[in-house]
Write a structure and sequence with these properties.
The complex is a heterodimer. By secondary structure, chain A is an alpha+beta fold. Among the domains of chain A are: 137 residues, Rossmann fold (3-Layer(aba) Sandwich), CATH 3.40.50; 114 residues, 2-Layer Sandwich (Dna Ligase, domain 1). Chain A contains 19 helices and 35 strands. In chain A, strands 13, 14, 15, 20, 23, 24, 31, 34 and 35 form a 9-stranded mixed sheet that branches. A 6-stranded mixed sheet of chain A has the order 3-2-1-4-11-12. In chain A, β29 and β30 form a beta hairpin. In chain A, α3 packs across α8, α11 packs across α12 and α13 packs across α14. The radius of gyration of chain A is 27 Å and the shape is globular. In chain B, α1 packs across α6, α5 packs across α6 and α7 crosses α9. Chain B contains 14 helices and 20 strands. In chain B, β8 and β9 form a beta hairpin. Chain B has 3 domains: 215 residues, no CATH class; 176 residues, no CATH class; 39 residues, no CATH class. By secondary structure, chain B is an alpha+beta fold. The chains are: A alpha+beta, B alpha+beta. Chains A and B meet through α4, α8, α12 and α13 of A and α1, α6, α11 and β14 of B.
């Protein structure tokens, strides 16, 4: 068995988790190289080989899997640096892409502008053709329109083409006719056909997703082709997999054709890692939070399945492919504190980012950030930040908080820093409420998995705010997403729209649509070398009561489909509707309308095996480093508390709050209300002292 | 560590004030989500025409969540009225219903639920929800009745009524109310509003338990003051003075060519601002009137667009704003006048405010927004043999007015909703209603020209293949004078237009307030929602912006020359700089 490597390219750092079944997993971090992210990636691989005293080619031969999360597509959309794209669409509705159904997200802000469309109108070509919602052709396609458009695209030097016709979810014939002409006359263009990528109803959702795919397709293609070549050059013979927004992975060849599946993959590893870390202690549900430099991501997992949405957005543009439902808010170590016009303290959403960074980094930042407040309160050690690699300038941090916060609020500088700490914690707690309370779930029922460089410093306060009694902080919390990537399976999603009352379902059609999707799934997984017995299929239907506007996705069984069990399907819909919306109309006998059929195809991959530690008993004194004064928010005063070396903590070790646990890339603040026990895989489990007995037995069996 | 210690000036914890404000906001959002999850009428769960709010014991607003601005501040006046009305007779477990436009309500169809929150035996706060109901009795389903002349023809009046007292449902009263409302769905949606209030109560009680009553009260007072301070600072930035604005509403549904003047005098003095409507026309004989509550909402939502959008929404906002609308004018209808069109007067009303303040805040006001012209359609969907109803939001959303530095927003729709209500998705539109969409696109040259142009209007064409179809128009913007106005040399936006092309080729143009019955199958619906007004001299607009609009077909080559003085070659789409310079009078 060889190495498995998870690689997560972030805005500031590229994180690596290197695993091997005979070794403890190791963390690497290198600075990201945004102009060509593969440079940073190769640098990390070089560091690994150096640490093992091996030449790179020798080390790389031992690597059997690399799972790679990339933000090249995300950045292309955010910075408008995607491919020049042309759109073919049905005559009469070519502006649907730009209109976004006429939404203005900020209703009181008259300076708020619409998003610049990825395809300007002069490259949106109307084609005369029309199907109705059942797929019946009302007007045959006028091929000349397509030819004219393609000629213009060629003249304009368009690199990518998107085709999306009205009601093509019901009949793909016209889109295929148009696609054939494009392929013939623009052989080098990247092409996305909406009925292939996303054959489901809702025109704006489909056209926006199709255009996004074409817009980023050439970018991802160039990046991955280049990366594969580089890896090959150094002798890599293992498997390369790419992280998707749905929490699964995919081979690079398939990712190139479905480039949009990577658009929001950045934080998608997090929930997957959360499942693995909590499963060790026997949990099936959890909430994961990841606090980095600029943003805070929260996700909820129920029954080992993260919530999924098909109503995602990137840069306010709809992306209707299934993706993990992750709420992101502007709260991170770099979040800037400021006083609003009414004299109230606010934190973020503006961030000092990596450049100029927090004031204490001494890289030119002048505005006080969350990290500066953490330093003043003693949660960070000015001499042991990044393991001592980055010395922190405390004087400057004090000065900045004094000038920008304390003086304006007539507080002393520590009160001001404590206020900044408090306000950002409340903001993050609101982010957790967003994924829990707003989805009808009580956060108190979930263990909170806390990750990200800045997360563990704030964990106790977020938990107290939400009355959550137990938290799990993985030892690898600073590279949480990279860890999650290694734990992800291959995943492909399929959809077909079949709008009909459940009672009127034509079983033959119903079954053949699912069969079609199964076949496509098997074919893809076969190309990814997944054996048949490692394939899992999850079937579901989007349904609603008649007259409703939103559907509920309900998981059904293969038997429900192929034995035509309508009642069984209905019986699964009513309670799910009740759970989500507080009522069901079962007794009233309201008809159920089927809208979309969905299939999730999973190819189970080999997961890295983490080394289990030996039980060492509760005494943590070997890990004790020293005592340090930190601010205790409940007492509003400083107190000297013990500092432990996180890397020296072993299975069974127990620590009473208040305390600090230090690692190279993370510091954990244990507030007086909590105690910590280290589990068999090194995660620090923080438990509310008053409820210790309920949770301790899960950690030490 | 070198740290200066400072004495605290008061016992206010300013950090806690920030925290409370955030918590109030998230409680009202949770209440809103409860409504989204549990209501059944699409106007609530799809169009999101509701508001949730929290109030202190005196009925002063702590925070609210509204998805469309038209309901901003629709609850506080009612809450204060209820506090006064019941006085000492408010008990734990009471639930109060209200919709009456003559006791501070804004529209009969908007039924509100209020729940008093008691802590340690004392009335401490209120939770309230108000949503647009599918029906409220009266002569016409849904409440829009252009023929109404009195409130009773519009719907059932509910002055403050305890539907629960001390936790016990007054069943007879409940049945009396719902015996006068057409659809059962309304009962369910009112229960959903009561559920929303329970969520609000829970949130407030947990805050009280954590912080105690005294801290709660002193800190919300500080919150009001801090918000008031923000608002006053915004008003202080407006030069002192008296500003006049006028605007007209066209057609009362009875007399062709009728029009009604809004006469507004704004006085800014230090950090106070007053809105005086003396001289506004008397109320109309039909439903083209606004109750006081609807007019106040219109003033506040328009004014909030002119100040920092970050200001929290609570009682502090209202303190520096003084309003006088004489009773008996059509902006403050006298009993028992009809007033269902009241919310729709927000557009013309906003025009008067924007015009008045254009002299004082030239860089903050927008030019005129397209006035709403709505069409509610109902009939039989023969595909499923079921009745269907739809308000054509897709067709009515025109452009907003431009502002200094920024073009207007395309296809945003009426100012009361400001982009909060979405157009139907084209495919869902065809699946759920018997309509075949033929066109839904931006309209060339619809935007008022200007240094910053107005938002684009939209053209909608579809074929109706339902049966027994009835349409109701309600709106404005079809008269030449009602076009979205331009500012500082900017030009007007285009006109609204609505016509029905019957299968025999005959074209029927409905009036702006009319019921059209017996629309035959195969009729083509055709509406053009106009563009917004332009801002500033069109000759000053950057040439590359004009070229971009021409390339995209938003502005024609002819108008580029005529309005903007930019000459573009139709073949190469290049600017003829020499001719342009001459036309623009430069160099």
């Amino acid at each position: 068995m060889g190495f498995k490597i998870g690689i997560d390219v972030g805005g500031t750092f590229t994180d690596f988790l290197l695993t091997h079944e005979d070794e403890t997993a190791q963390i690497y971090k290198v600075l990201s190289t945004p102009e060509d992210p593969s440079i940073g990636l190769m640098k990390g691989l070089e560091e690994m080989s150096r640490d093992r005293n091996l030449p790179l080619p020798k080390f790389i031969k031992e690597v059997e899997t690399i799972v790679h999360g990339t933000t090249v597509t995300t950045n292309a959309v955010l910075t408008y640096r995607g491919a020049k794209t042309g759109l073919l669409t049905t005559k009469g509705i070519r502006d649907a892409l730009e209109m976004r159904r006429g939404v203005r997200e900020e209703q009181y802000n008259n300076r708020y502008t619409n998003v610049e469309p990825l395809v300007p109108r002069f490259l949106r070509y109307p084609v005369e053709e029309r199907c109705d919602y059942r797929g019946e052709i009302l007007t045959s396609i006028k091929k000349q329109d397509v030819h004219d458009a393609v000629d213009r695209f060629n003249a304009e030097e368009v690199d990518a083409v998107a085709i999306c016709f009205m009601n093509s979810f019901a009949n793909k014939e016209h889109e295929e006719v148009a696609a054939a002409i494009v392929r013939e006359k623009m052989p080098n263009a990247y092409l996305t056909v909406s009925s292939t990528l996303l054959p489901s109803i809702r025109f704006y959702d489909r056209i926006s997703t199709t255009v996004l795919n074409s817009y980023v397709g050439p970018i991802l293609m160039n990046y991955l082709t280049n990366l594969i070549r580089r890896l090959k050059e150094i002798g890599f013979r293992g498997v390369l997999l790419i992280m998707q927004s749905n929490g699964g992975v995919v081979s690079p060849e398939i990712a190139i054709d479905h480039a949009a599946v990577t658009l929001l993959s950045g934080p998608a590893g997090g929930p997957i890692a959360g499942i693995a870390y909590t499963a060790i202690q026997g949990y099936k549900d959890c909430i994961t939070v990841d606090m980095g430099g600029t943003s805070f991501d929260a996700a909820l997992i129920k029954n080992q399945t993260p919530l999924v949405t098909t109503e995602g957005e990137i840069n306010r543009l709809r992306l209707a492919l299934p993706m993990l439902n992750i709420v992101t808010i502007g709260a991170g170590g770099g979040s800037i504190g400021w006083i609003d016009e009414g004299g109230l303290l606010r934190m973020g959403p503006h961030s000092a980012g990596a450049k100029p960074g927090p004031v204490c980094y001494d890289l030119g930042g002048e505005l006080p950030t969350c990290t500066d407040a953490d330093l003043l309160l003693g949660y960070l050690d000015k001499d042991y930040f990044a393991g001592g690699k980055i010395p922190l300038n405390e004087e400057k941090a004090i000065q900045s908080i004094q000038t920008h916060i304390a003086e304006k609020l007539k507080l002393d500088v520590i009160e001001a820093a404590a206020g900044m700490y408090h306000v950002i914690n409340v903001n993050m707690a609101a982010g957790v409420r967003e994924v829990s309370v707003k989805k009808g779930q009580d956060p108190r029922d979930f263990p909170l998995v806390v990750a990200g460089g800045a997360g563990p410093n704030h964990a106790c306060m977020i938990a107290l705010e939400l009355e959550i009694p137990v938290m799990i902080i993985p030892r690898e919390s600073s590279i949480f997403c990279a860890a999650g990537m290694l734990m992800s399976d291959l995943q492909h999603n399929f959809v077909r729209t079949y709008p009909i009352f459940l009672e009127d379902l034509n079983l033959k059609k119903f079954q053949s649509l699912f069969e079609e999707m199964e076949q496509e799934g098997r074919l893809l997984l076969k190309s990814e070398h997944i054996p048949k017995d490692q394939i899992k299929m999850i079937y579901s239907i989007d349904m609603r009561y008649i007259k409703q506007y939103h559907e509920v996705n309900v998981i059904i069984t293969r038997e429900d489909i192929f034995k035509g069990k309508r009642t069984s399907i209905a019986n699964k819909f009513h309670p799910e509707h009740n759970r989500l919306y507080g009522y069901s109309l079962e007794e009233v006998g309201t008809p159920i309308e089927v809208i979309n059929l969905r299939l999730k195809c999973i190819g189970v991959t080999d997961k890295p095996k983490f080394l289990k530690m030996k039980y060492r008993g509760p005494d943590p004194s070997k890990a004790f480093k020293k005592k340090r004064r930190v601010y205790l928010p409940d007492k509003k005063t400083f107190q000297a508390v013990p500092v432990y070396d996180g890397d020296q903590l072993r299975y069974g070790h127990e620590i009473e709050g208040p305390a600090i646990i230090e690692q190279v890339n993370t510091t954990t603040f244990v507030s007086p209300e909590f105690s910590v026990i280290c589990d068999a895989y090194g995660s620090y489990t923080m438990v509310l002292k008053s409820r210790e007995n309920e949770f301790k037995s899960r950690v030490v069996q | 560590m070198k740290v200066k210690k400072r004495k605290k000036s008061s016992n206010i914890d300013q950090i806690l004030v920030s925290v409370l404000q955030r918590r109030f906001k998230s409680i009202t959002e949770e209440m809103g989500l409860t409504l989204l999850r549990t209501t059944r009428s699409p106007i609530l769960n799809e169009a999101r025409d509701f508001v949730t709010g929290l109030y202190d014991a005196k009925g002063r607003m702590l925070e609210q969540t509204e998805y469309i601005p038209v309901l901003a501040f629709a609850l506080q006046p009612v809450c204060q009225y209820i506090v006064e009305y019941f006085g000492d007779e408010i008990y734990p477990g009471d639930v109060i219903l209200h919709n009456d436009v003559f006791t501070k309500g804004n529209q009969l169809a908007d039924i509100a639920v209020f729940r008093p929150i008691f802590y340690q035996g004392e009335l401490t706060a209120w939770a309230a929800c108000k949503g647009h109901q599918a029906d409220v009795g009266g002569a016409v389903p849904g409440g829009y009745n252009p023929q109404a002349r009195e409130v009773w023809q519009e719907g059932l009046r509910i002055p403050p009524v305890k539907i629960y007292e001390k936790g016990i449902l007054r069943k007879d009263l409940w049945n009396l109310i719902f015996a006068n409302i057409r659809y059962n769905i309304v009962e369910e949606d009112i229960r959903a509003e009561m559920g929303g209030c329970v969520v609000g109560e829970r949130g407030i009680l947990s805050l009280l338990e954590r912080h105690g009553k005294e801290v709660f009260h002193s800190h919300i007072e500080y919150l009001f003051q801090s918000t008031e301070k923000m608002m006053r600072r915004e008003i202080e930035a407006i030069p002192d003075g008296i500003y006049h604005g006028q605007s007209y509403v066209y057609y009362d549904g009875f007399r062709e060519g009728s029009r009604f003047k809004i006469n507004l005098t704004i006085e800014v003095k230090g950090s106070d601002i007053s809105f005086d409507y003396t001289g506004t026309d008397p109320q109309t004989e039909g439903f083209v009137n606004a109750p006081y509550g609807a007019s106040v909402s219109a003033i506040i939502l328009t004014f909030l667009m002119l100040v920092n959008p970050e200001i929290p929404h609570n009682e502090g906002i209202i303190r520096p704003i003084h309003i006088h609308i004489p009773e008996g004018t059509f902006l403050n209808v006298r009993f028992p006048g009809a007033s269902t069109f009241g919310n729709s007067i927000t557009g013309p009303h906003a025009d008067a405010i924007l015009k008045a303040l254009s002299k004082a805040l030239p860089q903050r006001v927008t030019a005129g927004w397209n006035r709403m012209l709505a069409f509610a359609i109902s009939g039989k969907d023969t595909r499923k043999n079921t009745p269907y109803v739809d308000i054509l939001f897709n067709a009515l959303k025109g452009g907003s007015g431009a502002i200094h530095g920024v073009d207007g927003y395309d296809h945003i729709g009426l100012i009361n909703c400001a982009g909060g209500i979405l157009a139907q998705d084209p495919e869902m539109f065809e699946l759920t209603t018997p309509h075949l969409l033929m066109k839904h696109e931006y309209v060339t040259d619809s935007a008022g020209a200007g240094q910053w142009r107005g938002g684009l209007g939209v053209e909608t064409i579809f074929k109706i293949y339902g049966e027994e179809v009835t349409g109701v128009t309600f709106g404005d913007g079809v008269d030449e004078e009602a076009r979205a106005f331009g500012l500082f040399g900017g030009k007007k936006g285009s006109l609204n237009k609505l016509e029905l092309i019957y299968p025999d080729g005959q074209i029927y143009t409905p009036k702006s307030k009319e019921v059209i019955r017996g629309i035959p199958k195969g009729t083509i619906f055709h509406e053009i929602a106009g563009g917004g007004g332009g801002y500033g001299d069109p000759l000053k607009r950057l040439i590359e912006r004009i070229l971009k609009d021409v390339r995209n077909g938003f502005v024609s080559i002819e108008k580029a020359k005529e309005d903007y003085g930019v000459v573009i070659d139709p073949k190469t789409l290049e600017v003829d700089m020499e001719k342009t310079r001459r036309l623009r009078g430069i160099g």
